[in-house]
Every structure is written in C-alpha cells, then in structure tokens.
User: Fold this.
Amino acid sequence: MISVLTRLRNDNRGVSSPLAYAFIIAISGILLVGLATGSGTLVQNQVEGGSYNQMEVVGNLIGAQLASADKMNTESTETFELDTNTPDRITGSQYLVELNEVDSTTIELVVIHPQTEQVIEYDIPVTDSSNIDTDTRVQGGDIYVVKDGNSITLENR
Assistant:
C-alpha cells in the first residue's frame, strides 16, 4: 500500500489553478492599461476636433460681420455696431481673435485657442484695409464689429 505522504508528493493536479489565476490577472491588467491609454487618446482627439469646429464657426461669424461692416462703410458714414454672437468659451476655455493686414484689399482674421494650441486663419477681402484697425487682439465672448467715423474695429463688451 502507498502511504498518504507519497501520494501527496506525487500529486500535480492542483498546480494549474493558481498558475491560471496568475495569468488571468496579468492579461487583464495589460488589457486595462491598453484600454485606459486608448480611451485617453480618443478623448483628446474629440476635444481637439470639437474645438476646431467651434473655432471655424467663430471665424465665419466674425468674418461675415467684418465683410458686412466693410460694405456698409463704403455706403454710409453713420456709426454702427454689429454683434457677432460668438460664444464666451470654446471647449471650456477662452480664445483670442486677431486682425492683421495682408495687403490693401485683404485682412487676415486669426482665431487662436491657447489650450489646444490650434490656430485658424481666414483671408477676408475688403474694399480698403486701411479703414480697418488691424493689429487688434480681443478675447472671445461679446465681440462687436464697430464702425466709428471711417474706422472699423473689433471690441469686447
């Protein structure tokens, strides 16, 4: 008869359960780290895409109002203000709008989002760029296109 101690020494049946358990935990950990990394990148891409789309909308709104103001400037000497109806923030943070002179018939509208470091530039044809106050920078929010006398400026309210 085989003794109980001999039988237990030669028994390998219980070894696979702890080993399998350790492998399952290791593989699960690797999968969770990969999932966390991948989802973080996805969220960042969504934020950047959303802010870019919002910046395009802001640029189009302000550009359209500047073009309208330029057209009204040539037809009238009256003082007026045009509200651009732009949001205060883009994806939760402030943004900047700049005007730069390109040449005598073109100004450049630049929308800058400091958080995502994105920049969108628009060339806007105008009658005479000397009538528009370029080298102007305003924060996003209540931005008005203001014509006073013969000059057109961007102002915050």
